[in-house]
Design goal:
The protein is α+β, with helices and mostly antiparallel strands. 21% of the residues lie in helices and 16% in strands. Strand 3 and strand 4 form a beta hairpin.
Length: 100
C-alpha cells in the first residue's frame, strides 16, 4: 500500500473515525431555492431553522473532536449543502456513485 505524506483530504473508509469535515452553512440562496422549480424543492425553506440545525450539527461534530472547516462564501447554487455526496475518494482516484 502506498503512503502519501502530507495528504490533508480524502477518505478510504466510511466507518473509520471522522477527523475533519468541510461544511457550507445554508445561506440566502439556499433560503430562496423554492422560488425556482428547477431545484425541486417541495416547500419553502425555513432558513433560520436550517441554519440552526446546521449550527447544532457543527457543534456536535466539534464536541466529538472533529475539525470543522467552513466555506464562508455564498455560492450561486442552493444545492451546495449536502450531507453526503454520491462519491468515494480513494488513494487511486474518485469513484462516482449512482445518485438519487
Amino acid at each position: 500500500m502506498q503512503t502519501i505524506v502530507g495528504r490533508t483530504f480524502g477518505a478510504q473508509s466510511m466507518v473509520t473515525p471522522l477527523q475533519a469535515v468541510f461544511v457550507k452553512r445554508p445561506g440566502t440562496v439556499f433560503g430562496r431555492a423554492f422560488e425556482d422549480a428547477a431545484y425541486g424543492f417541495l416547500h419553502p425553506v425555513d432558513l433560520p431553522a436550517a441554519q440552526a440545525e446546521h449550527d447544532g450539527f457543527c457543534a456536535t461534530l466539534r464536541e466529538l473532536g472533529v475539525a470543522v472547516h467552513a466555506l464562508e462564501a455564498e455560492t450561486a447554487s442552493p444545492d451546495l449543502p449536502y450531507t453526503f455526496d454520491p462519491s468515494l475518494v480513494t488513494e487511486r482516484g474518485a469513484i462516482l456513485l449512482r445518485s438519487g
